[in-house]
Amino acid sequence: MKHCTSCLLPETHETITFDSNSKCSICQNFNFKQEKVNWKRKKTQLDKIISKFKGKYEYDCIVPFSGGKDSTWTLYYLIKNYNLKPLVISFDHGFFRPNLKENVKKLSRNLGFDMITFTPNWKVVQKLMLQSLLEKGDFCWHCHTGIFSYPMRVSVEKKIPLVFWGEPSAEYTSYYDYEDIEHVDETRFNRFVNLGINSEDMYEKLNRTVDIRDLLPYSFPTKKSLIEIGSHSVCLGSYIKWDVKKQVKIIEKEIGWSGDEVENVPKNYTYEKIECYMQGVRDYIKYLKRGYSRPTHLSSLDLRNKRISKKKALKNIKNFEGKKPHSLQIFLDFVGLSENEFNKIISEHIVSPHKFKKIKKYGNKLKDHNFWNKDGKMDKKESKKIIKFWKNQNEYRNQKSKSRYIKL
Ligand SMILES: [Zn+2]
């Protein structure tokens, strides 16, 4: 497999391209951010946006909030520097870890803000996870779409036009670069949030076994409704230089935010993706599909920032990647699959040139593992039905494309 000569990311990374020196597009974006972005000018733009919206609505803005380092920083920054009155919206994907809840409490007591937490129907979430795994080899459709859509729906309902997200995607991928301000709108939603499946598609894929209204929290508001409220939805990181390690230090010191271990990730990365107890499964799937996972990703960020040596990065990768997470069994119960069925599904989503390989060895078990809620398993009969319908649909589609081919 080809890897970036600077940051070691492999060619199976989403959106990656390489220049003639085998330097990747994400590294090129990064250099642009370091050298050419006029952050002073961007900050003035931010001042203007805020003065345009502040004090004119029920709330000054909406801050979608996961409790992770980025949304925590966003909230902290906006309240401390601009004294904004935000409405904080948290979408409960179902897998919040105990430490996350503690962090949220500390933050809200320290800063003071109103917050809405929305928890979608678990029975629907389970079906969405299985269907999304079958379709894309990624079970997080409900989370990707819910986190983005639900706060936007609230902004429309409550007529609060300004929405502040955290980091821009240029930090990790090259869907956008730092030259343009990344508007968090439907284009962005369809480009890389919803895996190419919208709610109506999902409704049909689930053979209409859920109520169409159950999918509303996952549907982006209509363009018309957003224009009507004068929606302005942007990432704070498009206006101020995003420096995760520095930001984490500040929120740790000022509000007592605390990091956590993540399954199969080196112990010094205790600030990333600590909000979800299914993260280990998510990273595991990435490894099975693309031949790399979070240790490579985190090391690539540190390499770009010149914080570690290549030798250290390679050691991280060797010691922590390619291990089975203890959360896997919990996940399999939630979606009614055996491990063999799971492996078979994943093997259909391999990103070339990586090849599927079964993994037996387990990684580290986290200290809060026993506190993760395991209620709400999916009945095997139910998952069998979903898989059967998916297979039939696929056969039908394949036949259709074959017959079209013959006709041509
Ligand atoms: Zn690179």
What does this protein structure show overall?
This protein has helices spanning 25-35, 39-53, 69-82, 98-111, 122-136, 141-157, 186-193, 199-205, 223-229, 244-255, 279-290, 294-304, 310-320, 328-335, 339-347, 380-407, and strands at 61-64, 86-91, 114-118, 162-165, 232-235. It is mostly helical and 408 residues long. The chain folds into 2 domains: 25-33 and 260-377, no CATH class; 37-238, Rossmann fold (3-Layer(aba) Sandwich), CATH 3.40.50. A 3-stranded parallel β-sheet has the order 1-2-3. A two-stranded parallel ribbon has the order 4-5. β1 (61-64), α3 and β2 form a beta-alpha-beta unit. α5 (122-136) runs parallel beside α16 (380-407) and α12 packs antiparallel against α13. The protein is globular, with a radius of gyration of 22 Å. The model has no long low-confidence stretch (mean pLDDT 92). The structure holds zinc ion. Zinc ion is lined by residues 4, 6-7, 9, 23-24, 26-27.
Keywords:
mainly alpha, Rossmann fold, 408 residues, 3-stranded parallel beta sheet, binds zinc ion
Write the layout of secondary structure elements.
Layout: H1 25-35, H2 39-53, E1 61-64, H3 69-82, E2 86-91, H4 98-111, E3 114-118, H5 122-136, H6 141-157, E4 162-165, H7 186-193, H8 199-205, H9 223-229, E5 232-235, H10 244-255, H11 279-290, H12 294-304, H13 310-320, H14 328-335, H15 339-347, H16 380-407
Parallel strand pairs: 1-2, 2-3, 4-5
Helix pairs in contact: 3-10, 5-16, 12-13
Bound molecules: zinc ion.
Biggest sheet details: 3 strands, parallel
Report Rg.
Answer: 22 Å
Uncertain residue segments: none
The string of secondary-structure elements, in order, is: HHEHEHEHHEHHHEHHHHHHH
Instruction: Could you tell me the CATH topology label of the largest domain.
Output: Rossmann fold
- What best-fitting shape do the alpha-carbon axes yield? globular
Structural class: mainly alpha
Quote the beta fraction.
5-15%
Average pLDDT: 92
What is the highest CATH level, the class of the largest domain? Alpha Beta
> How many DSSP H or I helices?
16
Which second-level CATH architecture of the largest domain applies?
Answer: 3-Layer(aba) Sandwich
Oligomeric composition of the shown chains? single chain
Helix content: 40-55%
- Could you give the count of β-strands? 5
Terminus-to-terminus distance: 36 Å
